[in-house]
Design a protein that fits this description.
Layout (H helix, E strand, L loop, with lengths): L29 H41 L4 H4 L4 H6 L29 E2 L7 H8 L11 E7 L7 H19 L7 E7 L2 H10 L2 E3 L15 H10 L5 E4 L3 E3 L8 H4 L4 E8 L2 E9 L3 H16 L4 H9 L24 E3 L5 E4 L5 E3 L2 H4 L10 E3 L6 H10 L16 E4 L2 E3 L1 H17 L3 E3 L3 E4 L15 E3 L6 H8 L8 H10 L20 H10 L3 E5 L6 H9 L1 H4 L3 E5 L62 H6 L3 H44 L20
Parallel strand pairs: 1-4, 2-3, 2-5, 3-4, 7-10, 11-12, 13-15, 13-19, 14-16, 18-19
Antiparallel strand pairs: 5-8, 6-12, 7-8, 9-10, 16-17
């Protein structure tokens, strides 16, 4: 304003950009000063608003990015759909009691704060933010890893999920040592269904995110929501492997998948059931189309509760690909295997994996012709329950060194074979469990059991097969859980020795090259592997009671053996006198009263009936009837011992009575001898005067 400069301001009522130029107006006049003050105040207000507004804009951009990337804050951002859809679901990001209703007070996903490896995410932190923090897509030092997502609850986090984590760690170590791959690691991230899962994953050092349990719409199943929400969110920005926690791996899967990852959008496992492929093991390339396919699954689930696998296959149109031409069909119900390569209805290019390489448990029933010698993984589909799934995975050789399972092998107790009628097999199993418990050994069962008293026909009218897998003969994992006796798989010695000699997960016949996986020397490791095949045999024909069996098992000749095998348990002793001492007559504790074969064992196992139960799927121990103290068990006498003791007592009492009779007879004989000596010595006897015999003969002395 120096130099008498004037300010030309538009006046109200002036048009366009014209200005009023009254020469009498001066900024130094009263009116000018007044107007200048007004302008100054206005400028200050604008400046203040601009400063505060910029902060709001920055916050708004951060929130907008959170909505666009995370995809879980506002329904409209993730699922921009018709009014019909909006009416069904208004907002499924419901605040929990621990959260503030004001979204702005929640930590921003772009705040740069630290996020722990296991995150419950009650504060609303999105899954994308969690992944971006731990596995940034733009890291200059390391390429983004192969991301494996899985679901888990508190129990599975300690079993199948832990086994997956163990395999992934070993896979990374071996691939890096062998120089295999493009340097990308594999990272397993668990989508937790409950807080127990988050805790257990934290204890095991597993990446875990638990935020989806607080955002689930009521119509969506607990175990479905994290999978749907996670895939919709992540597939916009990352390629994803999804793997169920009941999938167990033996070898590296990448050599069977990498070439298709360059040419296809989706790679999945064959299912051969319900016209679907299996969504429990698949790889998906990031794209809006793939993400939207899972969005469509969500929309269907909100209208009608169903399995995500069913809906996803319907969206892709896999059912139609299995129908065969009527002229080629063997029967009206014939179906074709799913095509190895096809383009789905939504345009995704799909490759289906070899069913023999990526195998499912139910192929045991549905695809008996499937080859097994090249199997990389085993998916325990429809496998009864969690305990059974884990045990069958171990029995088929698909388990890892979880918590030193193979690195620290226990001493074992086994039997040469398990055969007989059901009563005999129950007694044998009780003896094995009892002996294993009281000698602190793990039970190593045979691979099969033979029942000799099954009905000739099963429930379907087919001839009964008397031989069953051991896990379809007795509920072994449930017995282990109830009784506290460790029960390993039949092939445990072989699998443990393979691990100890360094068999590699990179392929058959290979040895691992990574270092630091064993705690001691190579000599100790190989020695332990050899020891797994050393067996001491104990002939049961000479054992008359559990006390005698325990004494033998605890003796120096047997107690140091890695494995003890009970032999001839089905051969009765030769001596007739010792027949009652046979193991079949031994008294078993009430702790084992509920040990019995699988229900309806004469019916063949099926997809969801590996081992049937009558009622609840559990083995119980009678209340207050846990394992007794060993001293009390050993002091208990068998029936034959009690009977023998009774006979001994009777014999002793009889001998005592005979002895008394002999003593009386000897006394009388001594008296007679004395009389005869008296007659011989004195030569005559005289009757007492008065006639008759009054007191017998009297001695007369000259």
């Amino acid at each position: 304003m120096r130099g008498g400069a004037s300010i030309n301001l538009p006046l109200p009522g002036s048009s366009g950009g014209s200005h009023h130029t009254d020469p009498t107006f001066s900024p130094f006049s009263r009116a000018g000063r007044k107007l200048g003050l007004v302008v100054l105040v206005a400028l200050l207000i604008v400046y203040s608003l601009t400063r505060s507004g910029s902060g709001s804009v920055e916050g708004g951009l951060a929130q907008r990015r959170e909505e666009e990337v995370g995809g879980l804050k506002e329904v409209g951002e993730v699922y921009p759909e018709e009014k019909e859809r909006e009416e069904e679901v208004v907002d499924y990001r419901r605040p929990t009691p621990d959260e503030d209703d004001d979204e702005e007070e929640r930590p921003s996903t772009s705040s740069g704060g630290s996020l722990s490896k296991t995150l419950l995410a009650k504060d609303g932190t999105t899954f994308t933010s969690y992944l971006d923090y731990h596995f940034p897509l733009t890291s200059p030092s390391q390429p983004a890893p192969h991301l494996w997502l899985t679901l888990s609850d508190g129990h599975w986090a300690t079993t199948g999920t832990h086994a997956l984590h163990t395999f992934v760690q070993r896979l990374n170590s071996e691939r890096e040592a062998a120089g295999r791959g493009d340097g990308r690691r594999t990272e397993l991230v668990v989508l937790c269904l409950d807080e127990g899962c988050v805790r257990n994953c934290e204890e095991r050092g597993v990446y875990a995110y638990g935020g989806y349990q607080f955002t689930r719409p009521e119509k969506i199943l607990v175990a479905t929501w994290p999978k749907l929400a996670g895939l919709i969110e992540v597939l916009k920005h990352r390629d994803v492997f999804f793997v169920d926690s009941d999938v167990a791996f033996k070898y590296d899967p990448y050599p069977y998948m990498e070439k298709y990852m360059k040419t296809h959008d989706l790679i999945a496992q064959e299912n051969e059931a319900f016209d679907h492929f299996n969504t429990g093991w698949m790889w998906m390339k990031k794209s809006a189309v793939t993400s939207e396919a899972w969005n469509q699954v969500l929309k269907r689930d909100l209208k009608k509760v169903s399995r995500d696998q069913n809906n996803f296959n319907e969206i892709l149109g896999t059912t139609e690909l299995r129908h065969c031409d009527p002229s080629d069909c063997l029967s009206p119900t014939s179906r074709l295997p799913l095509k190895m390569d096809f383009t789905a209805l939504n345009g995704l290019k799909v490759h289906i994996l070899d069913a023999g390489v990526f195998r499912s448990h139910h192929f045991e029933v549905d695809l008996p012709m499937t080859q097994r010698h090249e199997s990389v993984s085993l998916h325990m589909t429809c496998g009864d329950d969690a305990l059974t799934k884990e045990y069958v995975s171990k029995a088929q050789g698909f388990w890892g060194d979880v918590k030193g399972y193979y690195a620290d092998p226990p001493k074992l107790l086994t039997i040469d074979h398990l055969s007989g009628n059901r009563t005999a097999l129950i007694q044998k199993m009780k003896i094995l469990l009892m002996a294993a418990h009281y000698t602190s050994r793990a039970l190593l069962p045979p691979s099969h059991a033979t029942f000799t008293d099954l009905p000739p026909l099963d429930s379907s009218g087919n001839p009964t097969i008397p031989v069953r897998h051991i896990f379809s003969s007795f509920p072994l994992p449930h017995l282990q859980s109830a009784l506290g006796v460790k029960i390993v798989e039949p092939s445990y010695p072989s699998l443990a020795s393979q691990f100890l000699v360094g068999a590699s997960v990179l392929g058959k016949g290979r040895r691992r090259k990574d270092e630091g996986w064993w705690r001691g020397s190579e000599e100790e490791r190989v020695g332990l592997a050899l020891e797994m095949h050393e067996v001491a045999e104990l002939d049961m024909r000479h054992v008359r009671s559990f006390a005698e069996l325990h004494s033998l098992l605890s003796s120096p000749s047997f107690s140091t053996a890695r494995t003890i095998r009970l032999m001839n348990l089905d051969v009765s002793p030769n001596s007739k006198l010792s027949t009652p001492t046979n193991w079949a007559h031994w008294t078993m504790p009430t702790t084992l009263s509920n040990v019995k074969p699988c229900y309806r064992v004469w019916d063949p196992p099926s997809c969801e009936a590996i081992c049937r139960f009558e009622g609840r799927r559990e083995v119980t121990v009678p209340e207050g009837e846990g394992w007794e103290a060993l001293e009390r068990v050993l002091s208990r006498k068998e029936k034959w011992e009690v009977k023998e003791m009774e006979e001994r007592v009777k014999n002793r009492e009889g001998k005592e009575r005979v002895g008394l009779m002999l003593e009386d007879q000897e006394a009388e004989e001594e008296e007679d001898a004395v009389e005869e000596e008296a007659v011989a010595e004195f030569g005559h006897l005289e009757q007492e005067k008065g006639g008759g015999k009054k007191g017998g003969w009297e001695k007369v002395y000259d």
